[in-house]
Every structure is written in C-alpha cells, then in structure tokens.
Amino acid sequence: MPELPEVETTLRGIAPHTLGQRVTACVVRNGRLRWPVPEDLHSLLSGQTLLELKRRGKYLLLRFESGHVLWHLGMSGSLRILEVAAAPGKHDHVDVLFANGRCLRFNDPRRFGAVLWTPDSLDEHPLLKHLGPEPLSPSFTVDYLLGNAKRHSLSCKPWVMDAKVVVGVGNIYANEALFAAGIHPLKPANKLTRPQLTRLVLQIQSILRHAIERGGTTLRDFVGGDGKPGYFAQELKAYGRGGKPCVNCGKPLMEKRLAQRSTVYCTLCQR
DNA sequence: CAGCGCCCCTGCCCGC
DNA sequence: TGCGGGCAGGGGCGCT
Predict the structure, then answer these.
(1) Which residue is nearest to nucleotide C12 (CA to C1')?
(2) Which of A149, A175, A210, A251 falls between 20 and 30 A from A63, CA-CA?
(3) pLDDT for A94-120, tens place per residue?
(4) Which residues fall within 8 angstroms of residue A84, CB to CB, at 6 or more apart?
C-alpha cells in the first residue's frame, strides 16, 4: 500500500494533530516488526515534544528534543490519528499518545514496518545516508539520472526502483512511469538514451505529483476497508493489467516477473 | 562496488 | 468448504 504518495499523505494527515505536542505515553503491543521496536520507547519519548515531522523517501522522520524516530510503513502499515485511544484491533502494534489526547496508532498486518530510535543526527543514519534524491526535488535531473545509469547494466525497472538511484518509486509507479515514458522495462539502464531518461524523469514526477494530489483516497480506502486501492483501479495503465489491451495500441499487455516483482508492459509501445 | 536472490510476515485469491 | 500454493504495493542483507 504505502508508496511515496501515501507516506506523504500520512505525514500531512498526522502533522496537524501531533506537531508541537508533548508525548504522554507509548504503548508497544507487538514490537516484532522488521526490526525490534525499542522496548523502552515509552521512556524514550514520554515528556518530549514532537518538534518536526518530515518524510525522506518512504521514511517518516520525527524529531524530538533528544533524538529522532524513524518510522517506515513497510508493505502493509498505516498510521492514523484517533480522537481518543479506543480499544486496539488486530495488528494495532504501536500507539503514541499526546498531551492533546490524540492517539497516533500504527497498524501493520505483515509487520514489514519499522519504528526505530536514534539519538544521533539523521544525516549519518545508515538507513538514510545512501538514499538517492527525492523525485520531486530539483536534484532529480536528467543529468543526474544519466550519470547514474551509465554505471548500471541491469534492467532499467529494478534500477529505477532502487532507493539509491531515486527514492519513492515502488513497483506500481515503476511500471506506470516506464509505460508512460515508452521504455521497455528489460532495457539495461546504461542503454537508455537521453530522450528516454528525459521522459522518465518527467513521467515519474508527473505520476507522483498526481498521486499525491489524490493520495488521500488510497489511504482512506485502505484503512477503512478492503485494501483495494481507490484511484488506482481507475487510472493505472500498466500495473495489474497484464493480458488486457494496451490503452495506446490495443495489443494485450505482457506480464513477467522481473527481480521477483510483477512487471507489465506493452511490447509495441515500450522500447 | 554491482547484481542477484532471499527473507521478514499475514492475508487473500485461485485451483483442486 | 477446506487446504495448499502463489502472490502482494518494501527494502535490507549477505553472497558471488
């Protein structure tokens, strides 16, 4: 579920209720996530004020007086604000309670998410240090991508999904961006032409921006119900459409597994 | 370093 | 209707 737009939507959703608020308590019901949640999260955070809330890639970064929390939603995680801390449901693993009475609740069925604490500067953090540029920042340019692509002979789809190349492009958006840019997902990164990379940059940015604008839909639908994405079903042109006609030329879309991820593309429109 | 395969975990869908 | 297999939107890690 949580691609970059959903993480951004989560950030915007929780910030008004938590920023500047003092933590009164933390409850860890199941700390066995991707890495163990600090057992003393309650004593680490209680009494501290949330000073800043940021996103880097798909990480949410919470700055407190004495350090930072890194929060990752993994594949199936969601963070919500509750007016009051109602009885927890299944997979409600972590709560952070604030002085205004609000409860920040983490639900994560697959437990691929993470809640980590570091007293240090985030610049040096091993999980963040080697991340590539933000796709919607000025540093994500064609020249940057061209320089990076030269060093990589692997297929361009797993390449563009690598967070060291650019953050926030998950499997769905990699499929969509390559389709929109007319690039074959199996084409080696170092064989991509400048015009192709120009289109790729533009399409990644355009698709992510659009998804952020509508980001709330996916999150609400996911949290509220059956896990089926809201706007995705309407607007996806490649992902999940294997065997269905290409929206450009009508030829059935090819579907293959590439680096253990489902990959959908048009053999006519993507070269 | 680059590139690949594996793994963490639950839920759901499909075919038998 | 029950069960086994495969798959799911992430991403770090260890091996070659």
Answers:
(1) A127
(2) A210
(3) 999 999 999 999 999 999 999 999 999
(4) A101, A103
DSSP string, A110-153: T---EEEEESS-GGG-HHHHT----TTSTT--HHHHHHHHTT--
A3 is catalytic: yes
User: Taking chain A, what is the end-to-end CA distance rounded to the nearest angstrom?
Assistant: 29
Domain that holds residue A223: 142-265
pLDDT in tens, A41-62: 999 999 999 999 999 999 999 9
What is the CA A186 to C1' B16 distance in angstroms?
35
State the Cα angle at A175 between A35 and A157, rounded to 5°: 70
Is residue A2 flagged as an active site residue? yes
What's the CATH number where A83 sits?
Answer: 3.20.190.10
Q: Is the CB of A229 under 7 A from strand C?
A: yes
